[in-house]
Fold each of these.
Amino acid sequence: MAGERFTLKRRQRGIALRAHAREKAAGARSQGARHPAGWRAAYTLVREHRSDAGDEANAALSRDLGFMRMAIAKAREGIEKGQSPFGACVVKDGEVLACSHNVVWSSSDITAHAEVSAIRAACARLNAIDLSGSVIYSTCEPCPMCFAACHWARISRIVFGSRIEDAQGCGFSELTISNQRMKELGNSPVEVEGDFMREECVDLFREWSARAGRRAY
Amino acid sequence: MAGERFTLKRRQRGIALRAHAREKAAGARSQGARHPAGWRAAYTLVREHRSDAGDEANAALSRDLGFMRMAIAKAREGIEKGQSPFGACVVKDGEVLACSHNVVWSSSDITAHAEVSAIRAACARLNAIDLSGSVIYSTCEPCPMCFAACHWARISRIVFGSRIEDAQGCGFSELTISNQRMKELGNSPVEVEGDFMREECVDLFREWSARAGRRAY
């Protein structure tokens, strides 16, 4: 039953995101209003599916879109402050525990990636080291440091947008080991879902790359 | 030339540590004074080799032993405070930049492993995110989070004592991916040297395991 719901959820999400991508490709995106047509397509689909199982899948997709949008907004806030173009949001039972952008430069802390910063903040908020049942939404595939931090925190699910290779392409000295590989090699129970709102997340790199004085590390 | 020195250094270290292990096995270790015979053997060897190349190799070995001993002492301090049995020391140009034990429990921060804590402190001390040329001495093989933190910080060399499997054997939910595997998969330039003072570092787990109220995670 859970498997069936999951499959349906994946299918619905696939339809929504393909619709979104089609509208973007058709040039529906306009300057000054980010991806309105794409978002409208996704949310229209969410509203239009009204079967019981569909309701649940659509609600889950709607939540995922909303939380990833928060992570993207946070990453953009970081870019505007001269930080690196990464954002992450930790959510448990529908509540945002923490939403952080990368603060490596502003804190002079090489470990202060968006995911690690969000996990630390979520731990502090709950005064606990166990974030079981949480989902982390990350604009970019967590690097092995951040993936392992998710594992240690017992985060249940990682949803990411762009890929490690996208960050590497911008000059970040990534350890290019995918989350799927880390999960398999380390036998981690964390669920991993990539390429979610990938284009919007890749856009963050484009915006960052256009800024003078940007610094990769 | 550098290769030759390195080979000699490795050989000398091998002799010293084997001598140390032999003395331990012969029961030279007494309660209340930790490994005095072993240490004496190592340091006597360090004093006795007086060829030019030998001097350099012995000095390097002597430094490595001293810094790892600091990491072990720091881990022991953590155990006494109810923390997990891990210590790490970051050294640059012979100067200790930071020496930390794991503070996951006391800080309610799942990312506050000894290595990450030491790297953060070293960054703060230098007000820099680049620790190139540094060596980290860790009582246990850095987990993938800590290995990747070392990579990001551009630490040049990792020296560790016990292995990830030793920590896992004590109940820590490790991602069992060795540093060598991480280095190869991620194509990291960091130099890795394991099993250094391994027995002394495994002893930390034994001490921790004997304590009431210990908590793995």
Amino acid sequence: MTLGFEVLARDGKARRGRLVTAHGVVETPVFMPVGTAATVKAMTPEGVAATGARLVLGNTYHLMLRPGAERIAALGGLHRFMNWSYAILTDSGGFQVMSLAKLRKIGEEGVTFRSHLDGSAHLLTPERSIEIQRLLGADVTMALDECTPYPSPREAVEASMELSMRWAERSRRSFVERPGHGIFGIVQGGVHPDLRLRSVARLIGIGFDGYAVGGLAIGEGQAATFAVLDATVPALPPDQPRYLMGVGKPADLVGAVMRGVDMFDCVLPTRSGRTAQAFTRHGVLNLRNAGHADNPAPLDAECRCPACTGYSRAYLHHLCRSGEILGAMLLTAHNLRYYADLMAEMRQAIEKGGLADFAAAFAEAQARPQQESGEWVEDQR
Amino acid sequence: MTLGFEVLARDGKARRGRLVTAHGVVETPVFMPVGTAATVKAMTPEGVAATGARLVLGNTYHLMLRPGAERIAALGGLHRFMNWSYAILTDSGGFQVMSLAKLRKIGEEGVTFRSHLDGSAHLLTPERSIEIQRLLGADVTMALDECTPYPSPREAVEASMELSMRWAERSRRSFVERPGHGIFGIVQGGVHPDLRLRSVARLIGIGFDGYAVGGLAIGEGQAATFAVLDATVPALPPDQPRYLMGVGKPADLVGAVMRGVDMFDCVLPTRSGRTAQAFTRHGVLNLRNAGHADNPAPLDAECRCPACTGYSRAYLHHLCRSGEILGAMLLTAHNLRYYADLMAEMRQAIEKGGLADFAAAFAEAQARPQQESGEWVEDQR
């Protein structure tokens, strides 16, 4: 047995599922905090788990360059290295090679590039990417794909997708089956429904433990993202997990769950936590705004995170203005808890067959003029 | 009743004591983590308490400038603002005015200066310093003093000390007595025993709840610091707490406890935690050293802090090299735990009458060539 996945309930296209990995059970739909360099930035693993997270993402590109996959393997694997006993999904490295590495050159064999850290030369092939992810000990491995920039000519998107499909086949062949471990293929094809469907068919032909939709949230806009999902997701196997990579804002998650997506990752909650942004059920607050300076209220009175149960907005404002690390720690904890709670609420709504109502209430609360609620007025200044 | 203080045991000049404040009991000798801007940097209050700390220091200078003493008072005081339910000692602001503020001008009335943050003009008098500390809600308030630079001509040190004594009298007069709250005077006089003793006599004449030794650890060296303590501490009241300000390295703490000091504060453990330095019973480790990269051992196998119980040196090295916030979080937690454990061990040793033996063993362990213990060798590279 590889990964286990079970759909427990359906509500329209949305699914309430359960992923069973070598490092525990993950309830879906799920948001995965991003642990780029073997740490979810500004968080302890205990703090990450306290948000409700049971699955985090690790970045192959970053880890292969520093500290190195073989080193992590010698130290007992990524779980032990970063003291995270729950599940880990690793990406393939493809996306960061395209966005971060220097002098990259893509060929049939793979990608040659130079490290953005020290300029050292590397070759990332499908086989090497899968090997690295095995050395890290990922519960969920991702096939290596090429991420086509947006916008690109259709011919370029098509050629890139076809290359990614050949890499997907090599990735699948290289993957070593182990109990509780699995490999996902990645659908490419830009914003072109026919290319996306061709990619889906190729991946299903190869056969994966789950299917990701890649190459989105790179500037095409939410409407285009959702249109691709509308065209793509129904063609995916109904009994396997679906993962929308690199997405997104809270409203993106709600819309994608309604379109049948089970898994997400994004740096937004963690990165925002380091830039004084807090997600709440009434939208995003910028804690640097002077209007918070005297406000004794918590960020969100309904939230049970450490930031909301222990501190005023005035204090969080002070920390952010003073550049204190605790500000990043508390806001990151809050944002991850917000994302985890949002997913938990959607799971409940699906179980009750009430996701559409939930989504409508969510959209209304996010759009509600903040003046209607006295405590939000300061953000209008 | 103001502050309570009881000497429970003596061992030579060293004392095992207990300070009773409005926010709980503090066992002495004690090290106070520094919470400059209403946060012990890179730590949650829960994390600070988990190191064993029951008393932290807040900086009047920083807090008066940002977010402002009246604002903190309106928000319920510093304890509530920073979510710290144990005791707080605040300094008077004098030291930071001298070291950080711009265009400062000292007169009989007080110090005028411009904020290092925004250039705004301020006047800090003894009366205003005490008022600020009352607004913050400090359990232990410090009298305003002038910190004479080292070295300075004797005449300058004498004049400065006399000014500080006049300020001490005004500080004492301004202090509002409240149960569990107290005010400490600060002995000045540089490295001159006769000036120090004159300062002690002046302060005792005024009458304080405790006595600090100030103006040390500013470049005079450990031998000179200890010589001042040897000349000064025996003249202090035997039944009141003694606080050596801004000290110090672990060996400084051991030597000062042996000379009868009860309380300490220093940024060293927290600042070092943000610069990859870890204090251990065998000296200081620099976690940036490449020699740690493959080391699966913890920082200190005997330490019960989160860094030592959950992570390898290899991982801490990786975090420090990658500039990850978690590196600062874990090393700060470790260093504060190291300091807290060192103080707890000294308290135990005093109770058993074994402080001299403890100090000898401490000095030997710190000086032991690291080659003798295989796991320390890498720091010789």
